Each structure stands twice: as C-alpha cells, then as structure tokens.
Amino acid sequence: MRRYTIGEVCRVLGVRPHIVRYWEQEMGVLSPTKDIAGRRAYTSADLQLLFRIKYLVQERRYTVQGAAMQILEELSGEHADATAWIRIVRDELLEVLGKVHRRDADHKGDEHE
Fold it and tell me: What are phi and psi of 41, to 5 degrees?
C-alpha cells in the first residue's frame, strides 16, 4: 500500500502543511499513521478524505467543525447502506441454503425407497 508524506499530500492538495495538521487536529476524522521517525504517513483513503475536507472548507465554505460533521454523517450513511445490503444478501443466502438442504433431504428420501 502506497504511503504519502505530508509534503506530497500538500503538493497534491495545493495547501500548506500547517493547514493539513490543523484539519487533523480540529476534525478528529483523520489520523494518519506515523513512521518510526514520527513523520506522518498518509494512505490513499486519507488523501481522498483530505480532498473532501478541502472541498467542503474551501469551495462550500463549511467551517472546519461543520465539515467534520458532514463527513461523519456521510460515513455513517455509507455504513448504514452497507449494513442493509449485507442483511439483504445474508437473507437471500440463507433462503438458498434452506432450499439446498430441503433438496438434499428429498433426494435422500428417494434413495431409501
């Protein structure tokens, strides 16, 4: 998995390092790992999140706290949708499994006759 330094992230985003550190500190939705030397190491997911933060703060004029709330709402909505989808798929799989078990039981009954 590719890791990005704060310098690389700032070049891609077009912001200064202190802005990224401020967003991390104030929002609480972003916490990059740190390497052995204590330098921030950002993932692609972190980078996507930073692009979203930048858009909300600079383009949509959200406050930093407002952007954090919006992102948390978006993330919880995604998880809720995923949970609902998983339940639907699980129910369908259990239904298919029940049909397989019934078919197997019917075939075993035919063998004994």
Answer: -130, 110
Place of tokens 């129910």: 91
* CATH code that applies to domain 6-111: 1.10.1660.10
Percent of residues, the chain, with pLDDT higher than 90 = 51
- Who contacts 7 (Cβ-Cβ below 8 Å, separation ≥6)? 17
Contacts of 21 by beta carbon, 8 Å cutoff, 6+ apart: 6
Rounded Cα–Cα distance for residues 98 and 40 (Å): 50
Structure tokens at 24: 């991390």
Q: How far apart are CA 54 and CA 66, in angstroms?
A: 12
What is the pTM for the complete model shown?
Answer: 0.66
